[in-house]
Each structure stands twice: as C-alpha cells, then as structure tokens.
Amino acid sequence: MAFETQAGPDDTAPALPLPPMKWDAWGDPALAKPLSQDIRELLGAALGVTARESSAPSAAEVVLRASALTEEDLAALAAVVGTGHLSTADADRLPRAGGKSTPDLLRRRSREPQDAPDAVVLPGDEDEIAALLALCSQRRIAVVPFGGGTSVVGGVDPERGALRAVLSLDLCRLDGLLALDEVSGEAVLGAGLTGPQAEELLAARGWELGHYPQSFRYATVGGFAATRSSGQDSAGYGRFDDMVRGLRVVTPAGVLDLGRAPASAAGPDLRELFLGSEGVFGVITAVRLRIHPVAAARVHEAWSFPDFATGAAALRAVAQQGAGPTVIRLSDEAETAVNLAMTDKIGGSQVAAGCLAVTVFEGTREQVDSRHARTREVLLAAGGSSLGEEPARAWEHGRFNAPYLRDSLLDAGALCETLETATDWANLDRLKSAVTEALQSALTKAGSASLVMCHISHVYPTGASLYFTVVAAQSGEPLAQWGAAKQAAGDAILAAGGTITHHHAVGVDHRPWMEQEIGEVGVKILRAVKDALDPAGILNPGKLIP
Amino acid sequence: MAFETQAGPDDTAPALPLPPMKWDAWGDPALAKPLSQDIRELLGAALGVTARESSAPSAAEVVLRASALTEEDLAALAAVVGTGHLSTADADRLPRAGGKSTPDLLRRRSREPQDAPDAVVLPGDEDEIAALLALCSQRRIAVVPFGGGTSVVGGVDPERGALRAVLSLDLCRLDGLLALDEVSGEAVLGAGLTGPQAEELLAARGWELGHYPQSFRYATVGGFAATRSSGQDSAGYGRFDDMVRGLRVVTPAGVLDLGRAPASAAGPDLRELFLGSEGVFGVITAVRLRIHPVAAARVHEAWSFPDFATGAAALRAVAQQGAGPTVIRLSDEAETAVNLAMTDKIGGSQVAAGCLAVTVFEGTREQVDSRHARTREVLLAAGGSSLGEEPARAWEHGRFNAPYLRDSLLDAGALCETLETATDWANLDRLKSAVTEALQSALTKAGSASLVMCHISHVYPTGASLYFTVVAAQSGEPLAQWGAAKQAAGDAILAAGGTITHHHAVGVDHRPWMEQEIGEVGVKILRAVKDALDPAGILNPGKLIP
Question: Pick from A245, A322, A525: which is nearest to B532 by CB?
C-alpha cells in the first residue's frame, strides 16, 4: 500500500487517543451500575420484564463497513494533520460511530455490518480545520465534528448525505485554557475540553464554569455550545448558551470571531446562530465563557410536596421571585415513588411522600444563607415540607450516574429512554399529561406496560423544562418499539405547545419536527445560511436542518 | 386626478394620525427645555459658544421632494390598506422623513429640498402588511417600517436603494394588548404600541414591562425589538432582547412565529436574528414579553466616588455579586462636574464630588430592602459615600428629558450629540480614554474646544456600556464637523475592542463599521438571510447590512 495509515496489523488496536466513552455503553466500564435486587423485582412485578440472553458482539467481533476513502484521499488528509493524527483503524472508527441514545446502544448490539466514519482525523488547530474543510469540500467528503460522543439524538451519526465518504473530526486536541480574564470573569476554552478537564484548569486558578449536564464527565465545551446544553445548576449559573460571551467558528467560507462585547445592538446576535448549530454551519474551535469564583459555601435541602401541581407552583414562585437557588428540581409522583432522583436508592422504600424536590445553594457564605432563607420561605409558603439535607446530597451523589443504569436495564430486557421538552408555566400540566399519555398508549399498543416518570430540572421566570424517563419490557423489536413511542411523544409535544427539545438538541432524531418547531420560513433561513457557509454541503449532513 | 389620496388641498394638513414626535426636534413642544442662565454662561465661558440667528424653516416652509409614486401605485396600495390609511401629503410625509440624531435635526433646518418617503401607509393587520410587501416587491418600491421615529442612527431614513420609490410603513395601528398570561408572566403586545401605551395597558392589570430607554415616551415595542433597545432599568429587568419570549414577523417570504418555549435546544435561536434586524428582514408585528407585577416598593440612593475607576470597580462588584439594583449608573468626573445626570441642575453648583452614582431598587418591600442592603454594603466596601436619596430622585425626575436640552443647545449655537459602546470590565478604562481622545482631537482639529462626558448606564457580570455626551461650539458646517468626530470615535471604538453600538442600533450611521464588528463571514450571513427573505430587496435598503 502506497500510503500507510495508523491502523494496526489487524485493525483492532487503536492508533489515536480514544474518546472518553465506552463504544457500546455509557461512560467508564468501571462505573457500571448493576441492577439492585429491588430494581429487578420492581421490573418483573410492575412491567413483566424478563432477562434475555445477550447476543451482543464484542468490539473485536463487530463488523464495520469498510472505509470508502482512497489512498489519495488519505494522503491528502495526512498532508494536513500528519499521519499520526489520522486513522482508518476499526478500533478508532467504532468508538466514533454514533452517540448514546437507546437506539444507538441497541444498534451497537447488532452482528450485522455496522456503519462508521470512513476515517478519524484529529486536527491540532484552526488552520488545519480550515484546510480539512477546504479539502473535503473539494473531494466531496462529509465531516462530522466529534466532541465527547454523548449525543442522544444521532448528532454524530456517520451520515454521508450525497457525498462519497464521511470523516469524524475529533476536536480532542483543542484542549487549552486559552485566556483567563479575572477582572471581567471570563475564560476562553478550547472546544475539545471535556467538562472535568475544563473545570480542573479553571479550579487551579480559583474559578468555575458551573456547567453540569448529565453528560458532564464526557461531553466537551464545543459540544455544549453546538447543542445548547443545559446543566443541572442552570437556576444559578444559567444554561450554557447564557454563559457564552464569544465563539470562534471555522466554516468552509472562512472564520468567525463573534461576541465583541457583553451586549450589543450591532444587528442580529450571530452567536445565537452558531449556538445550537450542531456542526452544520461550521466547527466551533473556542468558546469565551462567563465564569465565577469557586463557591466558598454550599447548602443542600430536600423538600416534599403533596402533588406535582403544588410543587410546580412552588418552583414557579421561586423562579419568578428570583429567590436564587443554584439547583432546583422537582420529581413527579411516579419518579418519587421509585426514588429515581437518587440513583443508589432506586426501587427501595420510598424516601419522600408525594413529590420530592431538591435544592442546592452555592456562593459566598452570605449569598448562600440569604438565597437559602429566601427560597425556604417561598417553598414553605407554597406548601412544601422540608426533608433536610440528606435526600438532596443523595441526589447530588448520583447526579451523573443514571445513564449507567440504563445500560443495565437494557441488559436485563427492559427498554429505557428519556426525552425532554419545555413550555410556559401556564401550559406545563397540559404538556406533561399529553406526553405521558402518548408514551403510554404507544407502548401499550405495542404490547408493553410502561412506567413514565417526569421531573422539572430547569426553571425560568416564564416556564420550565419537563424531563421524562420511560421504562417498559423490551419487545422482540425494541428499535421499532421505541420508534413508535418516540414518534407519538414528539407529535404530542408539538401539538401541546412544547419545544421538541429543551437541551438534547436536534440531530437526526428530532429533525422531522423542526419545520413544525420553527416554521417553513425558519427552515428557509437555516438552509440559506447553510448554503452561504457550506456550499458543498460537507458539514454534518442529515442533521438539524430538514 | 383619477385616484384621490388623503392629502388636504394644500398638502399642509395631515390626513393620518401624526407620529408622537415633533418633526424637527425631540418630543412634545410643550416639554421643551430652554437653557438656564447657568448653562448659557458655561457654554460661553468653557466652549466659546455664541448664539446664532436661526434660518430654520417652519414645517410649512420645508420643500419636500415630490412623491415618485404613480396613480397606479397609489390605487394598488389603497386597495390593500384603504384610502383612509394612505397619504402622500407633505404633512404626513415630513414627520416620517427621518429620525432624531443631531445630523437629522441639522438637516431638518435646511431650506434646500428635503427627502421624505413617497407615501405613508398605515396597515391594520398582518395580512395587510403581507399584501403590502408582495405589492412593493412586485412594483419595486422600498419599505421603511416606522415606529416612534426616535432612531438616532438613520434607521428610518427614506432610502430607496435601487428601487423606484419608498413607503413609510407606520405600525401605529398595531396597538393592542393581544394576550396576558398572568401565570407565566407574559404579555403579547402589538408592535406599534409606544412605551407609555404599553405600560398603561399592563398597569391596568397590575403588570409592568419595565423598559425605560430615553426614547420611552415615543418609541414603540416593535422598534425596541428591531433595534435591541436597552432601558435604564436594565440591571433589574434586563435589556429588551432579554425580555423577548416570542416574535411575530411578516417577511416577503412568509410569516414567522418564533419562540415556542422559555428555552430550547431546537437549533439556532432565530429570535436573535430578528432582534436587531432593523426592518431589513421583515416587519415585526407582535412581541411576546416577560413582564412582572407592578413594584410595591421603591428606594432611591445616590453615591459619590472619588474617581471613575473606583466607581466602575464598585459597579463591577455589584454586577458580579448579583446584588440586585434595578437601576445603577455612574457619571464620570466631567459629567458630575456639570450635573449632567440631573437635567434640572445642569450647570449649577456641583451636587456631588468626584463621580456621581445613582441606584434605584424596585420590587416587594422585602426584595427592595434586601437588594438595597446588599448593594449598599458592596458600594461602601468599594469606597462609595452615600449622598442620600435626593440626587437619585433628581436623576429619575429628568430621566427622559436630556434630548430636549439638545434641541436648545443646537438653537444656541452649540453642537451636542451622544454615542455609546460597551466592552468587558478589564477593557473599560482603555476604551473610555480612546473614545474621549478621538472625539476631542477631531473637534480640536476642526477648531472647536469640546466637553466630552461619559457614564456607565448598563452593567453585566462581564462588562458594561459607556455612554458619551459631546458638547462643542458649532462650526459653520456642523454636519461635517460632527461627521469627522463621529468617524474618529467609531474608528477608536473598534480599534479599542468595543462594539460600535450597545443600544442605539446600526441604521445608516454605523453601517460602515459592521464588517469590522462581525467580520466578512458575518456580513455574508446577513446577506444570505436577506436574499432568502427579501429577494426583491425592498425592506429598509441602505440600513444595517454593508
């Protein structure tokens, strides 16, 4: 072979640094969560879930579609990034072959040939990214920007569109703390930094970003921006898009450096066009972010409300009065009954009556005390009963672990998936009922009893998010089973006035609802921007834009 | 004449409701502010300003360029809006011939033929607006959306671009409170409502929007959105763009209804493309806004700081610690010396030593007390001395009146104008010095001593705005004199890392700096959106997009 890639002799040894996640399950195998006896009994009794023999392949057994790239393609790519930063080895392609939705994980269990990017490249800077985009535009190769690979909506699926091949452009080498302005409270972070890497760099200087989505341990700064991520501390520090002061983006049409000032009236805010752009307009390379000093004090308090409506009204009062919690969440009756908010207690005896709420307060001692006092007063007046700090600490302890549980549930023969939306306070109950009913009736139609649980995890003065967790017994065709339920839920969300996604982004899975979400003229705008920036259509085809 | 417009026999009587502003000066003639003896003496002594004979024409004396519309055009327009909502009378065209910048007001004083829209239309609903846009696209007639006419950047200049004629599309008939959701705290307001009209409709139900820019009395809800306005209460209630939950926009390509949820990850936030779009992409017809209950309590306190740097650091601490004032402002030494922040005391004996700061707190009694206490503590620790409530009340009393003073200054032979920018806290001093020096040296070069004053009126955790007021003796060619100073200031702003405008918008006057502001690729995006939505290029030509 004229051109040597970094593939090992049998393609089973990776040539590049691996993404932080296991290829066929969430996260780090060492942190796997086997199901407790409580959960197993619950699954059998309530949902009729029975264990199945697994026939899932090991990584070495997976058959990947062969790379479609030619030697000339590979030589040209290597001329840009260097041979050490390019690979066609299966062991590099497989971990970047998709995200972590339940359908992704079900597909990974197949012994049929699986799809994967034709090669993986690890550019080292913006110039290399610009050169890659030019090369791929010319050679008709699609490019999927890759961060932590945590998408649950198909955002990193290796789709080629009408092109010859597809590259996974892994941003892991853009991992610097590029600037720290301690007067303005801002940091410029490389797009490839994972949540923990970013926080570690900042913490060494006494600062924190404070963005903790469930994907925190694996997802990246660039991914947070490209998907409008929202973290569990959003009540205190805002959504990720709220924190973004500036963005650098490399597009096939040139580089953008957006965000000259904390606020501006110089026309449309173009940052907001790249936040949520999911790699279809360009590759985000660096993000300037509002940061805050590491909290000196923290206080936890859990609450019980007699029912979801009372609890929701209490959270609304907290948000509208600006009482100031850093975290505030409310589980509905179903979630509370199985302790879903506390990973280590799931399925055990019920910790809270009615509906459990969790609050956490961060800041200086004085800020924490006054925020806590104000929030307590509002929650008490709204019908809450304090449960003390322990259940809130239990929530925090397991805050990133729920996805591990899903892996164990899938292994045990259960179907488990989540979906989310948001709406105004006045419409919250109607939306919650509509989605619950849609999920349950779609799963019943497919022959499965189901458990649909819900919580509020992000509040705003005018409304809130709703996050649903669904568990059912797997049918013989779980992909089709979930597909029908997801279709029913998405239709119900749009019909009941919600947004198709509050923080999971669009990817492939939510694309069918985008025209309903933003209208025909909205779609026309996205297409016009796409054509202007990426005329060859190489960037993440098949995602976001219908 | 086959087609009769609503023009009176001599074109001097208006046929349509008049815009709320005097045609050749700010606001309501009854509120004019003659210069006090103190100010006259200050102008003469410090700047060598001497009174001039005015040769300005009366409205009846102004010679307007004749309407270029044909009888067929007018018949087609009347078929859409009705003859009662269309006029070519000079008396209707003149008050919509431009905004209220100093150059606008100087141009109004000319006896040469003046430019004006070829006709004024007052559509009554979205369908009529859509029909007008279709008609104008077909007949190659430009359309300038018109709200309160308060633009200070040429945003409503009657430019035709390459088209045959230009219409002023006055939105005053879209004046309804279209929905009020007291649970979510949201109102849908018609785009043509002025600030006072909107607040009156809301106050009748116990609610407030809380958006008080200096143009509040005349500017409209649609204009606030189209220009990313920022009000004096921005510390408490946010900028206007922060308040916008949803927008309806009529474009030549169809209608957009944006903002399904309080927050969403369903791709780019397209609201942010129409906020600040200044009528070039479409006509904003209704805005869904976050509102709050009318404040039960208010507290005022003024402060003195030894110098601007100390005061700015104090405001920074307040913003970064989230202490919660509704209004917080800081005048520099020059503004403080002439009491510019208190309209009725300007030029009198200096009220505050060093630099004056003003704070106002609104909310429930409890909120106001705790916000006030926290803010006091921060300001005291940062080196402030309390001046009690009186100077803060004096600021509030005159908060909308400064533009009247400018009219009197122009009459008295002085040149007076304002400009504004914003940047990060770490860059604030550098930007302030650069702009001050650029203004002073440009005016000195043209032979005039000048007084350049500055204040901070909008604060963010990461930075703040800077608002400059310039006074000098008018030269024989005041338009050219100001043009050179404005050019120097704009160049200095961009060179020193500021935004070309924090809340005055772009219009014609800031357009030359837009490519530097958002980059070549940013401009390409705006042009692509424009081409997609307005292929005939009828909407507000010559504004915003370079």
Answer: A525
